[in-house]
What we know:
Layout: E1 12-16, H1 20-31, E2 35-39, E3 53-55, H2 62-71, E4 74-77, H3 84-92, E5 96-97, H4 101-107, H5 110-119, E6 127-130, H6 133-138, E7 146-150, E8 160-163, H7 169-175, E9 181-185, E10 189-199, E11 205-207, E12 211-216, E13 219-225, H8 231-248, E14 252-261, E15 266-272, H9 282-285, H10 290-299, E16 312-318, H11 320-325, H12 331-335, E17 340-344, E18 355-362, H13 366-380
Parallel strand pairs: 1-2, 1-4, 2-3, 4-5
Antiparallel strand pairs: 6-9, 7-8, 7-9, 10-11, 10-12, 10-14, 12-13, 13-16, 14-15, 16-18, 17-18
Helix pairs in contact: 1-10, 2-3, 3-4
Magnesium ion binds next to loops.
Amino acid sequence: MTDSHVLLPGSWLGMMGGGQLGRMFSVEASRLGYHVAVLDPGEVSPAGEVSALRIKKSYKDREALDQMASLCPAVSTEFENVPAASLAYLAEKGCRTAPLAEAVSISQDRNKEKAFIAAAGVPVAPHAPILSESDCQEAPAELFPGILKTARLGYDGKGQVVVDKKEQLLRAYLSLGKVECILEKKLALKTECSVIVCRGLDGETATFPVFENHHLHGILAETVLPARIPDETEALARADAIRIANAMKYVGVLCIEFFVLEDGSVIANETAPRPHNSGHITIEACMTSQFEQQVRTMAGLPLGSTSLKTPGIMLNILGDAWEKADGEPDWARVLAIPGVKLHLYGKAEPRHGRKMGHATCLGRTLDEALERAKKVARILQ
Ligand code: ADP
Ligand code: MG
């Protein structure tokens, strides 16, 4: 972003990507009185469906990018694999792009990302880039047992192989197709957390309370807010997230995934230059949602309060829920549970492992929210 000009409600905001993150952004932006244009090549577009304009073209399409640039003074992205060159092109055309292309390119490459986080003074797992067969021979012994991850395009645990011994590394590297990789030491995790940090045009920062995350088969299954971690660990993670956002001169909503170790220390794992699945809980549980913060940062408005309104649990609803129900899940039963808010993304096919929606289970206490979440899980998971 180049200027600090405030875009008032009534302005157009652009979104690269038409998935659920774009959809929830669009709902919040519309509530605030903005018009949203979505660029998305897909047949079905969860975000396009709830937006003022949908452009069904490729992310690299010149005409589509020109249209976005002429209509929208600010453009954001909902996933980190939008071509960085397209964001740079929009910026050239005078569009405020948040996040900046540079921040996106850091998150796109695990080697670059780890080096950047470490340089910002935040601890990361011991690691080594694996870019060739000879790097496999030279990998330090102390990184085993380790995890070999593709440097690019990995998500939901895809593109990762556990490598117990050094002798298995070459085979793992070949199995991933000899693409650029990173080898990380496999750490003993006490729990996994994430922090969402918002950074405005003027450098103002705000973090949400820490989210506690539980994964199943590499996919986020459940987020607990507030995280059940010591206060010092909470403070450490939030301070580290701000440090990373400042080092990136980030503008927008940035998520940092952290590992919490037995001793309460935190290790930054990866970044996502956008709202994050774990932050969906902010829609109901915090004063301002992560999507409203995204709107505010794009528009150059002050950040909203991130404080907790009520404890809650977010349960992801995958396509598997349709398999379990042998058809459409019993939404009426889910909605009969008090404090449960249902979000369905309007995707066409409920495929195995596909994120179709989520349920936020609120309670006066975390225990009450957990009880309600258990009931929802029994129906859906
Ligand atoms: P993805 O992009 O698929 O989310 P991650 O790097 O977050 O990739 O890895 C997915 C999951 O694998 C993590 O949430 C964590 O449970 C586990 N994991 C990843 N790296 C490590 C590590 N160095 N030590 C222990 N567990 C790890
Ligand atoms: Mg992850």
